[in-house]
Specification:
The chain has a single domain, classed as Rossmann fold (3-Layer(aba) Sandwich), CATH 3.40.50. The chain has six helices and five strands; from the N terminus they run E-H-E-H-E-H-E-H-E-H-H. A five-stranded parallel sheet has the order 3-2-1-4-5, with helices on both faces.
């Protein structure tokens, strides 16, 4: 497998995301971590901050490249001749959402495949939404996010 694309808003990147990235990096020649953004979504961090978090968190993983895109994921994949998406699954709820996205992506671009990695049990409870909910509270961020994000949450 040459290239995998792991897309998300990463608002912010969590230890769960990072675990998926580290594990997936051993499965491909190149792993593109794609920062996606939508005009319809409110973000806690700017796209520049999220991109910096991703770059800093993955700089030690040699075959990871961070990119960003604001349109349809299927368009990005087609434009760059990529055919395999990587998704992380925490549980059944994620499975149903990803199944819908898989069907949609197949309809938009028939050659797209989706590879799913199960979240490690240690990180299964962590999500960017949880981090946002906990932000106003004093939390030991080391359990949830990489150090570069932790600095911004304190």
């Amino acid at each position: 497998m040459k290239t995998l694309v792991y897309a998300g808003s990463f608002d912010p990147i969590t230890l769960g995301h990072l675990n998926i990235i580290e594990r997936a990096s051993h499965l491909c020649d190149e792993l593109v971590v794609l920062l996606s953004s939508s005009k319809n979504k409110n973000y806690q961090f700017t796209i520049e901050q999220r991109q910096n978090f991703l770059k800093e968190s993955t700089e030690s993983i040699k075959n990871v490249r961070v990119d960003s895109f604001g349109g349809l994921l299927a368009d990005y994949m087609q434009k760059n001749s990529y055919t395999c998406l990587l998704r992380g699954l925490r549980g059944p709820k994620d499975w149903y959402l990803e199944e819908t996205m898989f069907i949609t992506n197949k309809a938009l671009s028939g050659n797209l495949e989706t590879l799913c990695l199960l979240a490690s049990p240690k990180y299964r409870h962590i999500s960017s939404s949880l981090v946002k909910e906990l932000t106003p509270h004093l939390v030991d961020w080391k359990k949830f996010v990489p150090p570069c994000v932790e600095k911004c949450l304190k």
